[in-house]
Write a structure and sequence with these properties.
This protein has 124 residues and is mainly β. The protein has no helices and eleven strands. Helices cover 0% and strands 52% of the residues.
């Protein structure tokens, strides 16, 4: 089993920054594909970013690339999402996820493990 716990969300003004953390326990995290998704009220859960194990690649939603950065620290079994230049439309519950190395990174149903989410609210 893998357990994932997100933290770092909160209320921030437009233009500000937040760094989300996802701490994993259980099975080693290092060989998993890890990802971040978000879901706003009334909206479908959408892909944010992902990281393939072993430096195979990082991936971003086209609309977010340049503002958001995913990183992984295998020694700490933790994945991060750095969010800069935040906009009100970024407000959502953010979830971290983990799956096999070969998942289709942008599809939520490809991932086996999920955290409970952390709320990010961006005010005007």
């Amino acid at each position: 089993q893998v357990q994932l716990v997100e933290s770092g969300g909160g209320l921030v003004q437009a233009g500000g920054s937040l760094r989300l953390s996802c701490a994993a326990s259980g099975r080693t995290f290092s060989t998993y594909t890890t990802g971040w998704f978000r879901q706003a009220p009334g909206k479908e859960r959408e892909f944010v970013a992902a990281d393939r194990w072993g430096g195979a690649g990082t991936y971003y939603a086209a609309s977010l690339k340049g503002r958001f950065t995913i990183a992984r620290d295998n020694a700490k079994n933790t994945v991060y999402l750095q969010m800069n230049s935040l906009k009100p439309e970024d407000s959502a519950v953010y979830y971290c996820a983990a799956g096999r190395a070969t998942v289709v990174v942008g599809l939520a149903n490809e991932y086996d493990y999920w955290g409970q989410g952390t709320q990010v609210t961006v005010s005007s």
